């Protein structure tokens, strides 16, 4: 590894035509993302983030339960009035958001500019463009040519997993953005201490978005080396975010390091590592094209022996290694989103190998053209796979949640109680209706709950997705009349309640 004092030669300035093409490409990608974006409070994750953001906007850490007055909050089930994306408080009739606060903070800021309807779109576009700029910077810092640097950005932007994360309210692109920003700033900390302050700010935001980004600590130590001034800047930059992280968790979950996920370590086990790594090995070459396999040869490339690449490589190894032990990592292809921040490193490694191979004495003249053809075919591969994985169909599916909430707001009495599960978070965000989780009502207490609703003269309805309807109907006795189907949600009205006792 090269010593910490080594500084890469600054890349030469780019011709105006190249700058224009890069800016045009970025603008085109932003328009592309806006075209297919799904900025809706939908299922558990998306509604959870939006509901949390709106609470922050109101200066609140908890939301009151919408439930019949005069009854203890756990009487019909602790989580009976808890929409998806929340966790109920055992000691008070209130609930807290499940998810980390990082993305909700970004959504709240974006809502001030674009409103709630487009907040996620704005956040994701800015995150994607920022990630592209950082990847370009790191590629050039590693001495990749402008052409290869542009190829790196396009490669990441067209990855189906990156598109999947960029087209809906998810924290993955923000986790990618702020982790790359922290690493890029730390690598420049030897130039001026201000870069270490920026690294501290970025790493604190990365942890607010996803607490496991605390794994950045070790790569940052390697990046800073013996730069004691850099550590001071890192602490100064990260301290405000760290204090807010601890304060928020203490106020909402009862401890500075507690989270809304509760006890999560039972989901980690050494027994998961082998199948998860096999899952990664199957899907990474599909998502990044088989050409990413060239990254395996990066240890033999001189550029990989620089401190800069060692820092990035360490980050990728730590991230992939950590999530290899996580139960959910191997469930489906889009759970590779947890290791999405490692994808830029794999891309850079493959391109470093390609560039070194072309620079070798005796490399055939046609090799460069052949490699460009492979990269172009790879772009087609990624777009085709994205269509096969229905990445571009996210928005129509998520729009059904808003459509269902709008129908409920327009056609149901405002004091209605709605039994639901899948649309519970969306109904909580878009309406003021009382949400009742049919799957969380204590068995045997449904007649008492319906009696309590009747005392308040509340009309009772149900809003169910097809997959939950059989179980819901088996638990919600009584005579229900089907009203209509809006998107994927079928609405029902309770005609006759089951007798008590």
Please provide a written account of the structure.
- The strands form 2 sheets. A 5-stranded mixed beta sheet has the order 5-4-6-8-7.
- 54% of the residues lie in helices and 8% in strands.
- It has a domain at 35-41 and 103-393.
- With 501 residues, it is of the alpha/beta class.
- The protein is built from 18 helices and 8 strands.
- α5 runs antiparallel to α13.
- It starts with 15 loop residues before the first helix and ends in a 5-residue tail after the last strand.
Question: What are the defining features of this structure?
Answer:
single chain, 501 residues, alpha/beta, 5-stranded mixed sheet, 3-stranded antiparallel sheet, 18 helices, 8 strands, 8% strand
Compile the SSE list and pairings.
Blueprint: H1 16-36, H2 44-57, E1 63-64, E2 86-88, E3 94-97, H3 102-114, H4 119-141, H5 146-157, H6 160-166, H7 172-187, H8 193-209, H9 217-224, H10 228-253, H11 273-287, H12 307-323, H13 343-359, H14 366-388, H15 394-411, E4 417-420, H16 424-430, E5 434-437, H17 446-455, E6 460-465, H18 469-475, E7 479-486, E8 489-496
Parallel strand pairs: 4-5, 4-6
Antiparallel strand pairs: 1-3, 2-3, 6-8, 7-8
Helix pairs in contact: 1-4, 2-3, 2-16, 3-4, 4-5, 4-7, 5-13, 6-14, 7-8, 7-9, 8-10, 9-12, 12-13
